[in-house]
Every structure is written in structure tokens, then in C-alpha cells.
Design a protein that fits this description.
Blueprint (H helix, E strand, L loop, with lengths): L8 E6 L22 H13 L4 E4 L9 H6 L8 H11 L4 E7 L5 H14 L4 E6 L16 H19 L27 E2 L4 E2 L14 E4 L4 H10 L2 E4 L4 H17 L8 E10 L3 H14 L2 H11 L28 H14 L3 H7 L6 E5 L1 H13 L5 E5 L4 H17 L12 H5 L14
């Protein structure tokens, strides 16, 4: 595709808890959205109608037992994305379906089998968000959470095992010759026989090879280890950058790293996260945002952010209009290293008050865009044409009105500018993202 023919990719971040932050308190929010499948069906169908590339569901395997967080936030329960995806596969026809599944607290065989099956169920529209988990050891026979370096080492081997299992069968292995009675060409079977540091897996996978060869691999880690894994395996790279300059630097670095590993940089699509609040006028958009912010519990939110980023002090104990103290020079966390660095860098760069930091971090550290369809399209166009992004992972709170505002306002404006498609180009998620089918690694190996 030539440079002038490039168009934006749009993914949608949908909280698997149904709704994010304090949006559940909004007058328009349905009280049961966190457990009502029709909530998710509406979102997927609405975004498919405006030709979004994919919906993406996050996940965790633990519950924050902080009493304030439990009492004030909706994240104590959530859908397993690998349960949601099969149902949505039958409710939609074109939109991609991407699920988070941890490499730390799962086994490769189970994950390979589920994603292969859902890829067939959806006609080739599934993606795997490959993550290492930010917590959860207490629910998996451990007293602690596996160390960050060990998690990523395990993730590398996990990916090798899963993709090896997806290559268990040649695409044409199941000949099903009724006349001869031969169901399978056994020469086209490849037994994995993996023996590694973390896994011992014989194979083969008892599922047909995925429609796409491999489901699309999404990766969201921006720590050093996360970037290495993204450069090696990622195809959709979810990231958090706050300025165009930061976006360009990350974009060039990750694509250069992939090229150094022998990959085609065009086969990595970088989608920064961005939370949008849309109004017919700037004032209307700001009023919508202010209403959402007024529903937030600052103490619960700031306390959670302080723990999440290992800040070293509790923001919720500081006066709301006081300057945020500088974070420690030497810092580390065993949870979200890249988000910790983003928050620490933001504090050092902008020297915000507690109130200003609260307003900036309501999308979990991602950019917040408040404006009209035209101003949001201006921003997307600047990032896209500056080489800071291939598209965006648009973060929605779960409120239907917010999704409709973007779908009915921003998408038509992007289409008017020739920046976004009007029809799906193909059937599979890979085809619609401009990514290649993944051939079996054993193809051509036999005489």
C-alpha cells in the first residue's frame, strides 16, 4: 500500500467489567451492564456498523481487596473475554474480536486450543492480547506474584509453544476421502515435543489449524522486556504515549527492532490508546467530561493510582490543589513498569497539581481528548501523518452514548477526509488490518 493510500486503523478498548471508572454512576448507565451480554452485543454491533477494525477486551485474574476500591469501583467482577468472544462471534460478521489471556496464569495448550476454536467460530476474526498479568499469584497456588523478568521469560516460551501447537496440522491435512476411508494424511501431522524451562508439551493440538494461520497477536507491554516481546511477536502494538514526539520515537524504535529481528516493519501496527469525550461544541464536550469527573471518587482513584504505580506516597492524602511531589529517582515495580514510568515522567515533565494529575490519569494514563468530531479528527490526523501511529485503540468508558458520539461523529469526519474506510476490505481480521496469513512453519519441509 502506498503512503498516500494508507488509512487509519481503529480498535475499541472495551472494559470486560462492562464499564470503567465511575461511569456506572452516570444517569444513562444501565445498572446491570457488568453482567448483561446485550450490553456487549450492542457495542460490537454499533462499532461494526461504522467499520471499526476490532473490539478489544482487557482482563485480570485477581481482585483488589482494598476496601475503598471495592466499595467505590466496578472492577471486582468481570467477564472472562474467552467466554465473551464466542458469543460475539455469532452476533457479528466482520469486526475483529481480541481477548486478553495471561501467559503467567494459563497453560499454552489450553490457550492454543481456545483461540484456534474461536478463530474457526468467527470465520478468522480473533486476536490474542498476549500479556503477563499484573497480579494474581494468590489465586494460583502462590504466596506472591511471579517476578517481572521471570514472567516475560515464561511469556517468550509460552508464545513459542502456542504457535508450535497451531502448526500441528498442515492446512490440507484432513483429506476426508470417503472412497478410500482416509480421514487424515498423517505425513501432514507435526508433533511439537517441546521440552523447555517452563513447559513440557508433546502435542499435537486437538484443534484444526486457525483460519488465519495464527490469530492476530496483540501486545501491550512498553517495558524493555515488553518491547522485546512486541518486536518479536506483536502485530498490533497497544501503547500509551502523550505527545506526538513520544509517539514518533516509540513507533520508530519498535519497527526498527522488528526489522532487526528479520520481520517486515509493516507487519507491526502501532495503536496508541486514547480516551475521547465528544460534543457538538467544545463547551458541550467539556461539560460531558466535567460531569464524568464529578462522579469520580478522588480519594479512591488517587489511592489506587498511588498503589498501581508504586509511587512511594499516597496522592489521596495530599491537598487537591497542592503540587505533586517529585517521585523517587530510583524506582521499580513488579506490576506495570511502563505505566509507572509514564506517570513518573509526566510528573517530572509537567509538575502538575494533584487535581491536574487526577484529570490526566482518568483513562489509566492514556491521553484524554475532549472536543468536537472535527478537533478529534485533527488530532488523529496529526499523529497519523507525523508517523506516530498506524491508528488508535479508542478507550470507551462503556457508556453507550460515548460510543455513539464517536461512531456517529468522529468516524464520518475521518471518512470525509479519506482517513478511514467505508467498507471492510476482507473477511478475516488479518485481511482487514493489512496483515499476512501466517503459513505453517513446516510448509515445504517435506519432500
Amino acid at each position: 500500500m502506498s503512503q498516500q493510500d494508507r488509512q487509519l486503523l481503529l480498535g475499541a478498548f472495551i472494559p470486560s467489567a462492562g464499564i470503567m471508572g465511575s461511569a456506572w454512576r452516570h444517569p444513562s448507565a444501565a445498572s446491570d451492564s457488568f453482567r448483561d451480554f446485550e450490553h456487549y452485543r450492542w457495542i460490537a454491533e454499533k462499532l461494526e456498523s461504522v467499520r471499526f477494525h476490532a473490539v478489544f477486551f482487557n482482563d485480570t485474574v485477581n481482585v483488589d481487596l482494598d476496601p475503598l476500591a471495592l466499595a467505590r469501583g466496578p472492577n471486582s467482577v468481570r467477564w472472562d473475554p474467552l467466554v465473551l468472544l464466542p458469543a460475539l462471534a455469532l452476533a457479528t460478521r466482520h469486526i475483529g474480536l481480541i481477548a486478553t489471556a495471561s501467559t503467567t496464569y494459563n497453560e499454552p495448550y489450553n490457550i492454543a486450543r481456545k483461540f484456534a476454536n474461536i478463530d474457526h467460530l468467527s470465520g478468522g476474526r480473533v486476536g490474542w492480547n498476549l500479556v503477563t498479568s499484573l497480579g494474581g499469584g494468590e489465586n494460583f497456588n502462590r504466596d506472591d506474584h511471579i517476578r517481572h523478568a521471570d514472567r516475560y521469560e515464561r511469556a517468550e516460551e509460552f508464545y513459542d509453544v502456542v504457535t508450535g501447537l497451531w502448526d500441528s496440522w498442515a492446512d490440507d491435512a484432513f483429506i476426508q476421502d470417503k472412497a478410500s476411508g482416509q480421514w487424515l494424511d498423517t505425513d501432514k501431522l507435526h508433533v511439537l515435543n517441546h521440552h523447555g524451562k517452563y513447559f513440557q508439551v508433546q502435542g499435537p493440538l486437538n484443534a484444526a489449524r486457525p483460519v488465519q494461520g495464527y490469530p492476530v497477536i496483540a501486545q501491550a507491554g512498553s517495558s524493555d522486556a515488553g518491547r522485546r516481546l512486541a518486536a518479536r511477536a506483536g502485530e498490533l502494538i497497544f501503547t500509551a504515549q502523550h505527545t506526538v514526539e513520544q509517539g514518533v520515537a516509540f513507533y520508530q524504535e519498535i519497527k526498527h527492532s522488528a526489522a532487526g529481528l528479520g520481520r517486515n516493519p509493516e507487519h507491526l501496527k502501532v495503536l496508541p490508546g486514547v480516551s475521547t469525550v465528544i460534543g457538538r461544541t467544545q463547551a458541550e464536550a467539556q461539560a460531558k467530561y466535567d460531569q464524568l469527573q464529578a462522579l469520580q471518587d478522588p480519594k479512591a482513584f488517587l489511592s489506587s493510582i498511588s498503589r498501581f504505580t508504586s509511587l512511594g506516597f499516597d496522592l489521596s492524602e495530599l491537598p487537591f490543589d497542592s503540587l505533586v511531589p517529585l517521585p523517587p529517582e530510583q524506582f521499580d515495580t513488579n506490576t506495570h513498569k511502563s505505566r509507572q514510568k509514564l506517570v513518573f515522567d509526566l510528573i517530572r515533565r509537567e509538575r502538575p497539581t494533584v487535581r491536574e494529575l487526577f484529570n490526566k490519569l482518568t483513562a489509566g494514563g492514556h491521553r484524554v481528548l475532549i472536543g468536537t468530531p472535527e478537533s478529534v479528527a485533527d488530532d488523529f490526523q496529526e499523529w497519523f501523518e507525523s508517523g506516530a501511529a498506524d491508528g488508535f485503540n479508542v478507550m470507551f468508558s462503556g457508556l453507550h452514548q460515548g460510543i455513539a458520539d464517536f461512531a456517529d461523529g468522529v468516524v464520518p469526519e475521518l471518512q470525509r477526509r479519506g482517513l478511514f474506510r467505508r467498507e471492510y476490505q476482507g473477511q478475516t481480521l488479518r485481511e482487514n488490518l493489512g496483515l499476512p496469513y501466517i503459513a505453517n512453519r513446516h510448509q515445504g519441509a517435506r519432500p
